[in-house]
Amino acid sequence: MAITTFAAIDVGSYDLQLAIYQISQKNRIACLDHVRKTVAAGTDTYSEGKISYQMIDEMCGILRDFIGIIHEYQVKDYRAYATSALREAENSQLVLDQIRVRTGIQVRILSNSEQRFLCYKAIAIKENEFQKIIKKGTAIVDVGSGSTQLSLFDKDALVTTQYLQLGAVRIREILGHLDHDDYETRTLIQELVDNDIDTFRKMFLKDREIRNLIATGICALYLNRMKGMGNGAENNVENSADKVTAGEFMDFYSRIELMDYEQIALDMDIPVEHAYLMKPSAMIYKKMIEVTGAELLWIPGVNLCDGIVAEYGEEKRLIRFPHDFTEDILVAARNISKRYMGNKKHNQSLEKLVLNIFDSMKKYHGLGRRERLLLQLSAILHDCGKYISMRDPAESSYHIVMATEIIGISHREREIVAYIVKYNTGRYEYEKIMNEVRNQETSIIIAKLVAIMRVANAMDRSHKQKFDNVKITLKNQKLIITTDSAEDIALEQALFVKKADFFEEVYGIRPVLKRRKGV
Amino acid sequence: MTEGKIDFTNPEYYRNRELSWIAFNYRVLSEGRDKTIPLLERMKFLSITASNLDEFVMVRIASLKDMVHAGYTRPDIAGLTPEQQLTLISREVHQLTEDQYQTYNRSLLPSLKNQGISIITRHEDLTEEEGAIADKYFAESVYPVLTPMAVDSSRPFPLIRNKTLNIAALLQKKSGEKELDFATVQVPSVLPRVFEIKRDGEGVKLILLEEIIERNMDKLFLNYNIVCAHPYRVMRNADLTIDEEEAEDLLETIEKQLKQRQWGEVIKLEAEGEMDKRLLKYLKKEFAIHEEDVYLINGPLDLTFCMKISGLAGYDHLRYEKYIPKPVPAFENDDNIFDNIKKGDILMHHPYESFEPVVNFIRKAAKDPDVLAIKQTLYRVSGNSPIIASLAQAAENGKQVTVLVELKARFDEENNINWAKMLEKAGCHVIYGLLGLKTHCKITLIVRREEEGICRYVHLGTGNYNDSTAKQYTDLGMFTCRKTVGEDATAVFNMLSGYSEPLSWNRLSLAPIWLKKKFLKLIRREQENAKAGNEAYIKAKMNSLSDPVIIAALYEASAAGVKIDLVVRGICCLKTGIPGVSENITVRSIVGNFLEHSRIYWFCNGGHEEVYLASADWMPRNLDRRVEILFPVDDEDLKQRVMDILKLELEDNVKAHVLQPDGTYEKVDKRGKTLINSQEIFCQMAEDAVPEKEDVKKSRTFTPMSSEN
Fold first, then answer.
1. Using the beta-carbon criterion (under 8 Å), do B506 and A235 form an inter-chain contact?
2. Candidates A35, A38, A230; nearest CB to B505
3. Please, where are the H alpha helices in A203-260?
4. pLDDT computed for residue B339 by the predictor
5. Do B447 and A72 touch (CB under 8 A)?
6. What pLDDT does B409 receive?
7. In the prediction, which pLDDT does B410 show?
């Protein structure tokens, strides 16, 4: 049958969710079932730093029930991801182990950037007009329970994405002792929100023109419902979303501003426990509208599960996105490079070279598309450390990469990129790397990619792009790189030897640099 | 409105629900008195009034008594305190009882005799020969199961069980002591109440069991002379759980009281009218009962035995011809049930149309290899239900079976627990109801894996999944595989399994969270339309109407000019014909051979009619304390059919009683009108709708079947 059933589990900070999807040949994802149960693991993490045994117990019980539903639909495959409550919990590994032992479910903790990327994929697959919306300046405002992610788009591509530790549950936790919803509490929340978002404006927004906001997150789902969903519209994941004008949203905000939770619950017809999160969420959207001057607020009504299935479908080549996400990752990296005044020309040349070598060596490295992307990112980011120090730029580059969020790649992947830029020069320290990454597979990937980086980098040592047009062939255990550059390549050839040694060490193949005859 | 705003919640505009219920029982009684109805059917109606009244006493009166004891004085919808209500009810129930026995003694007994069925009312009237037969029966079958109990200084007054029939006697020691002893014996419920003494060409002679015992009392107390012996019966406030109809604050108050009470107090004493004064005084004292709760009965106690007589063998000409539900046309082909539903929504009108497709739906699903899951809510199920058997089989076949069993269904608790355990053993996931809520909705969901992906088949109904009551109750049910409804059905079961509410509903509205609001919205929309000068009406049918908020909304709508026509079988707290309040509202009640049970809600919506079916009445218990489902009929043809059904019921002039402004019900004036008996017409329609099958034997050509068949 050309139909795949898939289950996505979101071990969230506020609730556990399970969604069952059916992916059909016609590139369609349909949600068959979606259940939620409130277990606020986040309240443990945000206040105690770890998740209590009782909470684990409760979570396992619900996950076991989920398995029943998964069996019911005879689901082929599933993915279970956890977000900030587990990510930030000190005992997260223990929790994952308990879940695995007691329910058999393998839960993976998403890094923030991965999580946001999934959310962003969910929007792209659900929102038919996504491509059109992001042509104009657009910001995605994803208000989670523990944090908020602000992503800016301009001319089809992602410009920047920033993480604010400002989530609906977290705000409530911070102000936990203030039970009342009085003027004082409201002012406190307002100050918290204003402070963070104003910083974001100064640092990243500057004078960019933002016309649209895309609102996602816990409470956006209810906003979406308010906009007349549930009037018989068939609820496909890719169903087109709703929008409200900034004015309409402001009216809504001023209506709920003075209500208490009970009233909000009644007014919006939502459970009280969600009404509790409504105001802080709405406050963040409101503030974003104010600072960006956006005219439209899009509410696609997506959740993490929608993103999980989108990712799965894409990976298994069951669906195709209208939007190029790899390009977003690259653009984001180029923006980081630009921020740290990287050498654009050199980087472009390097990018081309590393990819060229990577592709020629396919048979020997056995790596895939994902590693190719990481190599490309490394090429883009390898020199950003120079912004900080000329003495040890590789070390500085490493720190910058480790500290900068790159949407769409996992923490481990970011780590790989950081090591590649770090060992682009200097002695390669096998043992140290192994000790640090604590994963053999990862350390081998690093070595393989570093070998390519080093060779390619040596070829543009002069930063004069002498090797822009090269032909690479593999013959008799030799990787022959031929350039048609008319310039002298003596410097490169001299430097090349040392780099070639490492390459040979890794692949057992000797790279050789040649100039085409007759030039 | 010149005198300002009308307060639509004014208690004067509402009728007390208990009094309205008694009026309903009168309507049933009037069927028992209707000479145009076959005699034994009339016996059945009389019996129904008796069992209805018993339930009413045990549940409603008991509840009110509890309120009085607890000092609860909040007035009801009509502004009456519990105490005031009890006074009014007592008066009405006495009158009703009198009317029941008048019907029995003056009308039914003589008519039965005319038809050759004689019921011996006094054992003294037996001939010697007949007496001998009765005595033989006593000696062989009755005596061994009797437990006579005498009361004296060493033996206290025994516990007399709720609803049982007993004979009390005063005894005098044969030794001649002056003092009289009290004794009592229960008329065994294991033996049939009616004993056939003789049947011959002239007819049949019947005698009631208590008469046979009374005749033989002396054999029970050998050392005594029987001074007098008379039957009596008590009703207790036995129900240790509180009726769900009451407010929650009341529950708390009473629960404390209940713990202090070992068994329910006696709230009603029925005794034979000619009972010896000394005996009656003794009983009253022992049961500590108030004068107004003593009912002296002019005839046999507990008229439910009339049901037995209505089924008397050999008298079919005194009954309606038994109606056999007709097949549902949409399934009268060789396609499988799922393919038939795929062709379009299917509506079924029970009992005119057979309930079999519903049973079949689950039976087929249990065996179908592509079915992944079956989920169903069960409220009252018949013993030996084929549905239960199929569910168990489905679980054994490896399907995910989720069943919500409502244990709180009144008087059915034990029955329900037994088969629920059986299902659990078979591997079904059984949910034993929800905390604090009764699950009253009737929904079945079947998840099936098909070529194009998962398909969900849903059955929604107004009546229980009970194949035997489906032959007696008029209900509507619908099959659909619409995606929107399927998604909602999944969400319903997720909620019943304890998950959070879905982010949105497509087509269904659920009580207790959304349904009331939905109804109010629909009513107010009509009101707005009426105010805007557009056509606006509401036509609805339900079992009872007692929700104060809904009624107030109806009054407001009526005042705005919305035309409201209601068919309410039972309780109706709404008053018609109040100037400025309810002049545009009519209420009629249909009491017929089948029990009216379907719930239909039809709104004009500015000409784009919306028609809904539901498991809920407009009662607080349905809207606030139960899980109920309202579902729309979206298919245009089916919608038309439901509207036609309701229209015809509103035109009924044979079985309909119309509510008058004074609170009484009167039958429609039929003069010069074609008689319309809606139930009979529906029977005819169902029969006409069955496609004629070709009679194979009559045909002179053979029809070869190809392999596709």
1. yes
2. A230
3. 220-226, 246-257
4. 94
5. yes
6. 55
7. 53
Say whether B429 and A68 touch across the interface (CB within 8 A): yes
- Give the whole-angstrom CA distance, residue B506 versus residue B488: 6
Rounded to 5 degrees, what are φ and ψ at A235? Answer: -90, 70
Alpha carbons within 13 angstroms on the beta-carbon side of residue B439 total 23
Task: Report the distance separating Cα B541 and Cα B561, nearest Å.
Answer: 20
Could you tell me how many CB contacts below 8 A there are between chain A and chain B?
Answer: 65
| Model confidence pLDDT, tens digit, residues B50-80 | 999 998 998 889 888 888 888 888 899 999 9
> Which residues is B473 bridged to in the sheet?
B595
* Backbone dihedral angles phi then psi of residue A218, each to the nearest 5 degrees: -50, -50
Angle at CA B229, nearest 5°, toward B224 and B235?
125
Q: Model confidence at B412, in pLDDT bands (50, 70, 90)?
A: low
Residue for token pair 């969901």: B445
The better pLDDT of the pair A46, B561 is held by B561
Predicted confidence (pLDDT) at residue A300 exceeds the cutoff of 50: yes
Q: Give the other-Cβ count within 10 Å of B636's Cβ.
A: 9
The confidence band for B414, taking pLDDT boundaries of 50, 70 and 90, is low
B415: amino acid identity, one letter: N
Quick check: A224 contacting B, CB < 8 Å? Answer: yes
Indicate the pairing of strand A296-299 with strand A212-217. parallel
Q: How many helices (H) and strands (E) does chain A have?
A: 22, 14
Rounded to a whole number of angstroms, the distance from the CA of B450 to the nearest CA of chain A is 9
**Does the predicted interface ipTM exceed a cut of 0.95?**
no
Q: Give the length of chain B.
A: 709
Conformational region of residue A386, where left means phi above 0, alpha means psi within -120 to 50, and beta covers everything else: alpha
Domain topology for B511-688: Endonuclease; Chain A (3.30.870)
Pairing of β B626-632 and β B656-659: unpaired
Contacts of A72 in chain B (CB under 8 A): 372-373, 400, 447
The three-state secondary structure class of A68 is helix
Contact B498 A37 (CB under 8 A): yes
Minimal CA separation from B480 to chain A, in Å? 15
Bridge partners of B444, per DSSP, are: B376, B459
B329-507 to CATH, choices 3.20.20.150, 3.40.50.10190, 3.30.70.1350, 3.30.870.10: 3.30.870.10
Find the helix packing angle between A261-268 and A272-292, rounded to 10°: 90
The pLDDT of residue A432: 87
Contact by Cβ (8 Å): B169, B221: yes
Domains, chain A, in order of start with CATH, read 4-111 (3.30.420.40), 128-299 (3.30.420.150), 325-515 (1.10.3210.10)
Q: Is B440 a catalytic residue?
A: yes
A230: nearest CB among B400, B499, B506: B506
A106 touches chain B (CB under 8 A): no
Instruction: Return the residue of B nearest to A1 by Cα.
Output: B451
Note if the pTM is more than 0.90.
Answer: no
Rounded CA-CA distance A499/A456 in Å is 9
The CATH classification number of B11-318 equals 3.30.1840.10
Is the confidence at residue B260, as pLDDT, over 50? no
Q: Does A15 touch chain B (CB under 8 A)?
A: yes
Instruction: Pick the closest to residue A306 from A139, A147, A115 (CA basis).
Output: A115
